[in-house]
Each structure stands twice: as C-alpha cells, then as structure tokens.
Design a protein that fits this description.
The complex is a heterodimer. Chain A is of the alpha/beta class. Chain A contains 17 helices and eight strands. A five-stranded mixed β-sheet of chain B has the order 3-2-1-4-5. A five-stranded mixed β-sheet of chain B has the order 8-7-6-9-10, with helices on both faces. The chains are: A alpha/beta, B alpha/beta. The structure holds iron/sulfur cluster. The site of iron/sulfur cluster has 8 residues of chain A, from α7 and α15.
Chain lengths: ~425, ~280
C-alpha cells in the first residue's frame, strides 16, 4: 500500500509546508529524546496543560498523534491486531490499540521514534478511556503517572469556582512532580512567557477560522485544519507555533482578498462533527471535493480548545486559565447540548448549508448521542444532516462504495433543493 | 421522438426502463447482474431497444444508478438510487412523502418532498442484516423459491419470534425452529415480521409521514407488504413497477436532460446539468 501522506496533493502552499516543517522539527526532537533519554512526558490532546511541561523543558509526547500518524500512513492495522491479540476487545478505542500495539512492537524507546516517557500525565478530559490507556502505558514503562482529575462540566459553559480550585490544586502537584523530575525550580515568569506565546497562537488560529466565514472559505476547516491542529495542540506555547499562525493568517487573508477559495469552486458549505477516517483520509476528502463541498467549521478542530469563542490563556492568571481551559474551553468535557450549541453557532455564523456527522465506531464515548444530534438538526432546526460511520484509526470499518453512495445522495439532495429553489424563484418573478 | 433510459445495476439484478418524451414507459428490462456488471448494463439497454423497436440513436440520454452505476459504459451520468427511487415513486404516486426501498443488499427509508426531492434518508448499516438477502437466505434454508415465501408467510398464525436478522446466522436460527417442528408458514411469518420491525426503525428516523410508497425488488413480496403495513398501521402504495422504481427515476433524470437539450423550459424538478459528469 502506498503511503497516503506522500500522495496528498499540496493544497495550500505555505501553511502546509510550514506546518509540516515545524511538526517535523518536533518529531526530530522526539527521536533525539528517544536516543538521549532527556525528559519527556505523555499527554492527551484534549484540553491539555502542555504549558506546564514546557516550563520545565519537558518534551510533550502525544500518543493520539502517534496513533493518527500511523493511520494516515496506512500502518495502523497490524498494531491494532497486535493489541487485540493480547486481549483488547474488537470494539475498544482503536487509537488505544494502535498505540499499545506500536509500543509492544518496539516503536517506543531507544531504537524507535518515540521516547520512553519520563512521566505520564493523564489530563482526563471527558474520555474515561484515557485513564485505562495511560495506566497501561505507565505499567508498561514503569514510570510515574500523574492523573489529573478534571470534573465533567454538567451544566452550561462556565466552570464553577470549586472545580477551578480543584484542578489548580492538582496542577500544583504536577508542578512539584516536574520539579522533582528535572531538579529545577518552578519559574512563574517563564510560564507567563510561554502563555503569551499560547495566547498569540490562539489568536491567530481564531482569526484563521474567522476567515472561513468568507465566501469562498480560504481553507477547509476540517481537512486542512489538521495541519493547524498539530501546532495549536502539540506545539502551543512555543514561539514557532505563534509565528506559524501569524503566517497562516497572512496567507489566508491574501487568499480572501484575491477571492480565492480552497477549491476551484465552492458549491456547498458544510460543518463537520467527528474526526476524519485517517486510514482513508485522502479518499474521504475527495468524496466531498467532487461536490465542491468545503467545511467552513468543524468540531474536531476544537478537541484541544474552543478558542473561536474568545477564550485565551492568560499570562496574568496562568494556572487559573489553564484550569479553565481544561474544564470548559475544549470540545470534550462538556455536555452534548453544549456541543449542539457550538454546532448551531457554526451553522449560523459561518453560514453553512448542511451538517455532516462522521461517527466513529470505536469511540463510543463521543459517538453516543449523535443519532439524537442528527435528529435535532434535521427535525428541529431544518438543517440537512448526513450521518456516516467508519473509524478514525481502524481501516476495517471503512466501506468506500457505501460511503460514496450516502455522500453522493446527500449532495444530490442539496443540489436538487437549490435548483428547485431557483426555479421557483424564477417562476415567482414571472 | 426522443427517448431516455435509466439503468439500475443492483447487486443481484439489473433493471432498465425506457421513457418517451411524455414520461410514458415504453419498455422494461430485467436481467441478472452476474459477475460482469459492465455487460449487464449493456444487455439491459439492448433489451430495451429490441423490445421497443426504438433505434439506439433515438435514445438521447442514459442515466445509471445502483451500485454498478459507474460501470455502465452507455451511461451519460450517474445518480444514486436514493434520488432515483424518490423521483420514480413521486411520478407514480404523487402524494408520496416516505419511500421504503428494500433491495438485495440494503434497505432505505427516504423522506420525500412534493417534487420528488429527497429531504432526508436513512439506510441500514454496512452489513446486509434485514434486507432482501436475509429473505433469500431464509428461502434457501427452507428449500423454497424466493418468489413463494411471501405468500406462504401470509398463512402463518403463530409467527416465531426471531431475535436477529443477521444474514450469517439465518441458517442456524431457522434450522433451530425447523427442529422444533414449527410450521413453515409460522417460521416465514416470523421472518417477515422481524425484517419489518427493523425497517420501522429506519422509517421512524426520517419521520413517519404518509403517503408511504414501497419500492425495490422485495416490494413484489406480498408477505413483506402486509408485514410492513401491519407494523406501520398504514396502507402502502405498491406499484407493479416497484422493482423498476430506481430505473424509472434514473430515466426521469435522463429525460430532464433530453428535454432541456431540446430547449423546452425544464420543470422545477429537473436534473441539474452539474450532475452530468459522465
Ligand atoms: S475520545 Fe474516543 S478516540 Fe479519543 S481516546 Fe477516548 S475513546 Fe478513544
């Protein structure tokens, strides 16, 4: 099988090249750390506290990114099967299985590309699979596990002060662990500096996303977003990431000025919910491109944080704002109705024609409730909604012909609706 | 006079319809798809021509639909069977608001607007559970013809309760009831009810709105018609052409194109030129 990554057409010139350059730099650091044993820590993407690790020069390692890279290179299946051989169930999260299988196959450590972590930080945010995943990792590597218990936000979009204080107290513990690991004293000014970089990157990311409100949208906020999710989630807090977003804003602003979109013609504007099927990323994307469909917003791009609604890391309230971000300013730690509200704003403010839900077979946690979501948007809001299903990591769940059939039928319906609307308007005019 | 053809290449059978400019059906063709999908499409088209005596050149446009739609060499455009069934059903039963299409490998519920436009649709999961394939499996285990099982099921008085409609387990499930000496008609009544129950789930998801039109190959099975009617508590529109509904819809889309080409002002529901991607 060919590697999808190499086959992917270079879409948006500078941004994509820049992204792959800074991400490659980070991966080189990972490889070097694997060989040298310099401090590194496992961390989750969702609402993470990477700034604290960065403050101690501890290199962050994201098993989720490792897993998705295996999938996009079409290498995930043997690792998934390996994990199933040791007892992981067939419906277990395939990210976990790919990562565990990869570790068992020697991918982590001196001879691999990923360092054995000096510490594992489980920022449990919404997904309880994280806990078991990282517990298993800690057992495999026999290294310290810091479990940060982030209470699920059951109501509204504001964290309650008690929850913020609770998470902050755990961040202090994390800081002590980092001091012990590195033998260095915590430097709050350094943290503030890092947070300034974070806030600048968040501002840039938000401006990029805002530019997708324009017609045509300068980039695909689902498929092209993954090039920006690396910098915002994994490299946040670095000057490079902040500079990257400044460059991205510049490029997209220029495109908007030239009236240039991501596709030769933007025919449909969609909002997407759910991660893409990474093993068939390219195929899946082209099923939408054929129809001139561009994602103008996506919930997946907010797994790390929902900055488009105004939240920024605050150098003046460093730990407090980190705690707030972990609690509410991310996709996963909130209720389904908050997710509805987020999507609704996307549809309205980004002026979308339809919603597409890609439901993930092996992620029961976030796929649960998507049937109701579909119903809410179609029946209550009258937003045409398509729900398709496969997996983000396991290629066995993807059936191209059926996927294509559903997507084609959906856009045929949208097209038809538009043509009829135009015909009726013409008839009314006489 | 100009004609338009629709060819529906399904997993088991290929159906084709030839329409004249007044939207009247002038010929139908039904053949087994077999292994050579390309040939099936061509044979179906040839059959239409020989049956009607219409010359090949008189057919202005051909639309392909069904899973084999991209393999039809004579096809000028492809439209999914979802749009086609909606369109065909609306022509034959203009009051249609919900289409239930049951074919060999999938079952769909389609919510339709007054102009045959698709408002929403739901289909069965990737596997073929609860579709025509399940009925075929049941017929095979019982040594009956697929064409007869519907009628037989109507005689059942104490239907068995099947818990699964999985096509892989159909054999062992049914043999279990045979071993218990349950009557053939009761087993078959249970089989039809089980599929109907599963279908209702799909229909509910798009919303239960009358009129209901039942299309696809399985619509020829009276047992299935009655089982669905009982579960839905409505009367279904079933046309003798139910099996050809996809091909008919495809032919209607093709005809739009023919008419547009003759610069007749296209109807509001006409096929957009953008679909004609070849
Ligand atoms: S959120 Fe879903 S995909 Fe992510 S770790 Fe949890 S179960 Fe896996």
């Amino acid at each position: 099988m060919s590697t999808a990554v190499a086959d992917v057409k270079d879409y948006r010139g500078r941004v994509h090249n820049l992204s792959s350059r800074i991400m490659t730099d980070w991966m080189t650091q990972l490889k070097q750390a694997a060989a040298s044993g310099s401090p590194s820590a496992y961390l989750m993407i969702s609402g993470n506290c990477v700034e604290i690790l960065r403050c101690f020069d501890i290199l962050p390692v994201f098993p989720e990114i490792n897993a998705l890279q295996l999938a996009i290179r079409k290498k995930s299946l043997p690792y998934i099967i390996k994990a199933e051989e040791i007892g992981y169930a067939s419906d277990n999260c395939a990210y976990v299985k790919a990562d565990i299988g990869f570790t068992l196959s020697g991918g982590v450590g001196k001879d691999g590309n990923i360092p054995v972590p000096s510490m594992i930080v489980c920022n449990f945010v919404g997904c309880n699979v994280y806990i078991k995943w990282f517990e298993h990792c800690a057992a495999m590597f026999n290294c310290p596990l810091v479990m940060i218990d982030v209470p699920f936000v059951r109501e509204g979009d504001r964290p309650c002060p008690g929850d913020v204080a609770y998470v902050m107290s755990q961040l202090y513990d994390l800081i002590h662990q980092c001091e012990e690991l590195t033998g260095r004293k915590f430097d709050i000014d350094k943290l503030r500096e890092i947070m300034r970089h974070s806030a600048r990157a968040e501002e840039g990311w938000t401006r990029c996303k805002d530019l997708c409100k324009r017609r045509p949208a300068p980039f695909d906020a689902y498929f092209d977003s993954i090039n920006m999710m690396g910098p915002i989630n994994a490299l946040r807090g670095t000057r490079e990431a902040a500079d990257f977003f400044d460059a991205a804003v510049l490029e997209y602003e220029e495109m908007v000025q030239r009236g240039e979109g991501v596709l030769p013609e933007e025919k449909f504007r969609i909002v997407t919910e759910g991660p893409p099927p990474y093993p068939y990323y390219r195929n899946f994307r082209s099923l939408f491109e054929t129809w001139g469909a561009v994602a103008v917003q996506s919930t997946y791009s907010t797994v790390g944080g929902t900055w488009e609604f105004g939240f920024r890391h605050d150098p003046d309230r460093p730990l407090e704002s980190i705690a707030e971000q972990m609690l509410v300013h991310n996709l996963c730690n909130r209720t389904l109705t908050e997710r509805y509200a987020q999507i609704r704003r996307y549809v309205e403010e980004w002026d979308a024609d339809a919603l597409v839900i890609h439901s993930i077979k092996s992620c029961r946690l976030f796929s649960a409730g998507q049937g109701d979501m579909r119903e809410y948007f179609t029946k209550e809001l009258g937003v045409l909604t398509l729900m398709v299903e496969s997996d983000l990591e396991d290629p066995r769940y993807y059936a191209e012909a059926q996927m294509k059939n559903r997507i084609d039928a959906f856009f045929e319906a949208l097209q038809y609706k538009r043509i009829r609307g135009a015909a009726h308007a013409a008839a009314a005019k006489g | 006079m100009e004609y338009a053809a629709g060819i529906d290449v399904g997993s088991t059978q290929t159906k084709a319809v030839l329409l004249d400019a007044s939207r009247a059906i002038v010929a139908r063709a039904l053949i087994n798809t077999g292994a050579n999908v390309k040939r099936a499409g061509q044979t179906a088209l040839d059959t239409l021509l020989s049956q009607s005596g219409v010359a090949k050149e008189a057919v202005g446009f051909v639309v392909g639909t069904g899973y084999g739609r991209y393999k039809i060499e004579a096809g000028n455009a492809q439209v999914t069977e979802i749009s086609c069934h909606a369109r065909g059903a609306q022509l034959l039963f203009p009051g249609t608001r919900t289409v239930i299409d049951m074919g060999g490998q999938d079952t769909k519920a389609i919510k339709v607007g007054p102009e045959g436009d698709v408002l929403d649709f739901c289909m069965n999961d990737k596997c073929a559970a609860g579709t025509g394939r399940f009925l075929a499996g049941a017929a095979e285990v019982l040594g009956l013809s697929l064409d007869d099982i519907g009628e037989i099921s109507l005689r059942g008085t104490q239907p068995i309760r099947l818990t699964s409609v999985c096509t892989v387990f159909v054999e062992s499930d049914i043999l279990g009831y045979v071993a218990q000496k349950r009557k053939m008609e009761d087993i078959l009544a249970g089989v039809h009810q089980a599929i109907a129950s599963r279908t209702i789930g799909l229909v509910r998801r798009v919303g239960m709105e009358a009129e209901f039109t039942f299309t696809g190959g399985v619509a020829r099975n009276m047992g299935m018609v009655r089982a669905l009617e009982a579960k839905l508590d409505v009367t279904l529109n079933v046309s003798p052409d139910a099996h050809f509904m996809g091909a008919l819809g495809a032919a209607l889309f093709a005809l739009d194109h023919v008419l547009a080409g003759r610069s007749v002002v296209p109807a509001a529901a006409d096929v957009p030129a953008e679909w004609v991607t070849g």
